[in-house]
Amino acid sequence: MVATPLSVIGILREAITVLARNGKFMLQVMLTILFPFSLIGLLHYLLAGFLIEKVEDSYENNSPLGQKDVRTLIGLELAFFAALFFVCFFGIMLSIHASASSYLGKNTGLNDLISTIHYAWKKPLITWLCVSLFTLTYAVLAIVLIKLVSLLDPHSYAIYLWGWFLTILATLFYLYLDASWTLALVISVLEIDSCGTKGLKRSEKLIRGRKIQGFLLMFILTVLVVPIYVLLYVTATGDDDDVELGPFAQFAFRFVATVLFCLSKFFVSVVFTVFYYECKQSEGEIVVMELGVGYSLAPHKLQVEF
What we know:
This protein is mostly helical. The protein has a domain at about 10-130 and about 210-280. The chain is about 80% helix and about 0% strand. Helix 7 (about 155-190) crosses helix 10. The protein is globular, with a radius of gyration of 22 Å. Keywords: Membrane, Transmembrane, Transmembrane helix.
């Protein structure tokens, strides 16, 4: 069966279809991802929350802060960052495998996915670290460039506008690059022999001719998830001077923000898994679809082997 490739909106619709195709299984995967995120958030609130408030109060009152408290806070933050990094990596791998399984119509259990990840996490981790390094390098270079431009004449309105123009341009170009980087991560998860720079080269090959489509997908997803990121940031670092909330209300807000954050990251993985298969089909590669119970073929370019 051969049909035309999906458009940007078509890919987003297909991603929603993938989620709905095996709703119970996808819910299990989502809860599996959400649990460690919520646990880390709770532990951070209980262990580091007091020290963060102490640091903020010390800064506002210009009072000295004990070196022991500073070292403890830095140690806790580094530990939580490392835990969040690996939990996020695990969640992305799990969501990509689950999306691929649902897209292909396979009847895969949660235990099977976890077992697969247990034996095949090293190569995707290399790609994940490469993408993280590229993202960090790009962010540093962009910030330095924008800062240098703003220093040309701090009081010039024209320079101020140029700074904003460069910020928007750098953000859009990052989204253009990130589409390929995200696809490389999907490739490293689903293809055993592609990781690191090899996965990135494979991504460049697959996305060739569809880079604008990848950019538009990333742009739309970013517009959708940025408010969630802002909510997560506000709930994590918000100042209690304006609105005094009790501990339960604070935790409830953080929990809701965490759930929305996980949902957004999960959907991004689903969308780019669908985009990965679309790119494969555009390159003439065969995608094997399994016709299971309750499964129907989507109206786009497919090559089906029975």
